[in-house]
């Protein structure tokens, strides 16, 4: 089928309103960048999901990082996105302004050179992310062990996407279908969505990140819903297989094990986190210290945004008091956060 | 040889640094007098600007901090319809900096100044404690040849010309910092000839801007705001090299927000658009120029996407990435 025909069909759709959740922040971004909302029927609603790791990181974890960064001879290494997210007291940016040692890295493996250069500093890498980044953390651990580096540890806040999707299917019945995350699926394979598709009767379509890919996935979802089919379909087959990247999975399983995870604004979701195994605890800078804190600032509805209950514009703070320069909630802080993307693009 | 604090003392070593590095390369009759101030003859209205450069790393594919420092000021002058004439250069050098490295930077500055037709007529050097870094400030004077070019001068119907590919400088600097090997080089270049050719050809130019930090998105928003108009650009007209596109896809960057150091937009009267495009294309650093959009009634910046959807283009918020120029 030609792209023009797909666009025409999606533009002219006039059936029951449909809600599709795009799980991944990169999809949200691409939907805006290619102007997809402006060319499809308003009856097809695209809702952002929980796929921004920074947005779902618990404040207790941020507190842990800022506390460590303020300790003498400690330095926290992090991806740039984490700098502005507030814990209950401070963000890493604010801690840095108070004299804490915090350094932004582009790649976890750059932490090795940093640690080897300054042997009397204890480095802590803020290992945040989903299945996508976890294999790189495993490689970092490989390297730390190989080089016998003693002054570099990981503080992990790693989540897995499937339990969160399961939580949404169980609790948010208004979502009709899912645009499955592209990057995560590269690692996990498209197989992981099968159980959810058949149990909850929802199509799960894996898509790439170009506008055309997303349109094709929406079209596939609409066709499935029309034919009352609820299947997993992989439209990103040049990167995603059914089985996933088994080498990466082996690496993850070597170092990490499942544990209960704390999602900001949602609370605890069972077996939704990956933590360092007991046998590697010497590389663990306190990852097990996560706890639930009643955390979102007053009025902030990031939790409802993450769960697809509302669109960012429906939050009373959006654009009024909550902006990228003065972010109230985590979804406005991150480049992959739904509110930040909506603010910049609509 | 390493530069230590004695090079900033004002004594013998300072003199050696000035003579053996800066005078040797910047060499011109005004600077060579070594007076307290340069004495200059200019005619008519002048444009006058200053900029500071703190880039890391100091050397990168396609240039170094010295080339940036000359091009940055030359380009700011050129965008106002001025012919750049004289620059000053202030160096803040951290102890531990390599003398050969400083000389190499000075040499590049001299070559770039020559290409841009400007003289570096005054300078200053300070040495501070640190780790071998270098910061450069340049200021510059240019003679205005067309005086009404302004960011607030865009008019409904005007056409926007972009002088070439977006994102090269940003991607080159990030590649260096991340240790990624590729062929992407900074686009750092003086744009005085593009600006001059547009004016010499009698094009009705309403606005010129070099597209630096904040990227095309930010520059176009400034133009829309200041001129009280709206801007429409077309996604499929905006040139980005295949390599930079791939680099952006991997890192989640958007070329519209990436810094450039050798790109400009010219916003010209609709009827002059094709002639203007030719003027840019025949100039050095303008071969890949395109018409990328138009000025319309309203406010804000919108992009027609390849899928014929519409996307709002806002300014860059916050830093996101470390400073790169």
From TrEMBL, chain A:
It comes from the Bacteria. InterPro entries: Hyd_form_HypD, HypD_1, HypD_2_sf. One of its GO terms (molecular function) is iron ion binding. One of its GO terms (biological process) is protein maturation. Pfam families: HypD. Keywords: Iron, Metal-binding. The keyword Metal-binding applies. Belongs to the HypD family. This is Hydrogenase formation protein HypD. It comes from Lacrimispora algidixylanolytica.
From TrEMBL, chain B:
Residues 35-144 form the PurM-like N-terminal domain. Pfam families: AIRS, AIRS_C. One of its GO terms (biological process) is protein maturation. CDD domains: HypE (cd02197). Residues 155-304 form the PurM-like C-terminal domain. It comes from the Bacteria. InterPro entries: HypE, PurM-like_C_dom, PurM-like_C_sf, PurM-like_N, PurM-like_N_sf. Belongs to the HypE family. PANTHER family: CARBAMOYL DEHYDRATASE HYPE, HYDROGENASE ISOENZYMES FORMATION PROTEIN HYPE. This is Hydrogenase expression/formation protein HypE. It comes from Lacrimispora algidixylanolytica.
């Amino acid at each position: 089928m030609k792209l023009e025909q797909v666009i025409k069909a999606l533009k002219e759709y006039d059936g029951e309103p449909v809600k599709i959740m795009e799980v991944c922040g990169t999809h949200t971004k691409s939907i805006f960048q290619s102007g997809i909302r402006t060319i499809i029927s308003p009856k097809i609603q695209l809702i952002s999901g929980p796929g921004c790791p920074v947005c779902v990181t618990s404040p207790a974890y941020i507190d842990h990082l800022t506390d460590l960064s303020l300790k003498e001879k400690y330095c926290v290494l992090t991806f740039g996105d984490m700098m502005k997210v507030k814990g209950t007291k401070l963000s890493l940016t604010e801690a840095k302004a108070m004299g804490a040692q915090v350094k932004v890295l582009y790649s976890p493996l750059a932490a090795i050179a940093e640690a080897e250069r300054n042997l009397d500093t204890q480095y802590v890498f803020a290992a945040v992310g989903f299945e996508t980044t976890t294999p790189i953390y495993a490689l970092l651990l490989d390297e730390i062990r190989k080089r016998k580096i003693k002054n570099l540890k990981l503080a992990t806040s790693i989540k897995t996407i499937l339990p969160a999707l399961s939580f949404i299917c169980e609790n948010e019945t208004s979502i009709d279908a899912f645009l499955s995350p592209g990057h995560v699926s590269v690692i996990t394979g498209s197989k992981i969505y099968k159980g959810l598709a058949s149990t909850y009767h929802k199509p799960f379509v894996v898509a790439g990140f170009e506008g055309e890919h997303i349109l094709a996935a929406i079209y596939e979802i609409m066709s499935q819903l029309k034919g009352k089919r609820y299947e997993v379909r992989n439209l990103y087959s040049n990167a995603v297989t059914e089985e996933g990247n088994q080498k990466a999975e082996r690496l993850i399983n070597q170092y990490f094990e499942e544990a209960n995870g704390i999602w900001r604004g949602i609370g605890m979701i069972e077996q939704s986190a990956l933590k360092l195994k007991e046998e590697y605890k010497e590389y663990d800078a306190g990852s097990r210290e996560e706890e639930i804190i009643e955390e979102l600032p007053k009025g902030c509805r990031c939790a409802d945004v993450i769960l697809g209950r509302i669109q960012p514009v429906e939050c009373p703070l959006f654009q009024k008091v909550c902006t990228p320069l003065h972010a109230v909630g985590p979804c406005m802080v991150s480049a992959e956060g739904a509110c930040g993307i909506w603010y910049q693009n609509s | 040889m390493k530069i230590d604090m004695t090079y900033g003392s004002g004594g013998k070593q300072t003199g050696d640094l000035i003579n053996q590095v800066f005078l040797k390369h910047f060499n011109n009759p005004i600077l060579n007098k070594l007076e307290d101030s340069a004495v200059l003859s200019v005619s008519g209205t002048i444009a006058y600007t200053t900029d500071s450069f703190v880039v890391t790393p100091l050397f990168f594919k396609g240039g170094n901090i010295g080339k940036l420092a000359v091009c940055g000021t030359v380009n700011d002058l050129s965008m106002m319809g001025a012919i750049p004439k004289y620059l000053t250069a202030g160096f803040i050098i951290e102890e531990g900096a390599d003398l050969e490295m400083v000389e190499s930077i000075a040499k590049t500055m001299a070559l770039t100044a020559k290409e841009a037709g400007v003289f570096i007529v005054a300078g200053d050097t300070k040495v501070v404690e640190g780790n071998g870094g270098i910061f450069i400030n340049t200021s510059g004077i240019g003679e205005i040849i067309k005086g009404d070019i302004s960011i607030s001068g865009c008019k409904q119907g005007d056409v926007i010309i972009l002088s070439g590919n977006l994102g090269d400088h940003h991607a080159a600097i990030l590649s260096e910092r991340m240790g990624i090997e590729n062929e992407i080089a900074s686009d750092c270049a003086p744009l005085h000839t593009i600006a001059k050719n547009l004016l010499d050809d009698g094009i009705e130019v309403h606005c010129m801007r070099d597209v630096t930090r904040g990227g095309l998105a930010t520059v176009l928003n400034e133009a829309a705001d200041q001129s009280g108009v709206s801007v429409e650009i077309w996604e499929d007209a905006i040139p980005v090299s295949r390599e930079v596109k791939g680099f952006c896809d991997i890192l989640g960057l958007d070329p519209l927000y990436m810094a450039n150091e050798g790109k400009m937009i010219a916003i010209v009267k609709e009827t002059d658009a094709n002639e203007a495009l030719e003027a840019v294309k025949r100039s050095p650093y303008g071969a890949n120029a395109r018409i990328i959009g138009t000025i319309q009634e309203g406010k804000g910046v919108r992009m027609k996407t390849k899928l014929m959807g519409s996307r709002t283009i806002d300014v860059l918020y916050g830093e996101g990435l470390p400073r790169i120029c």
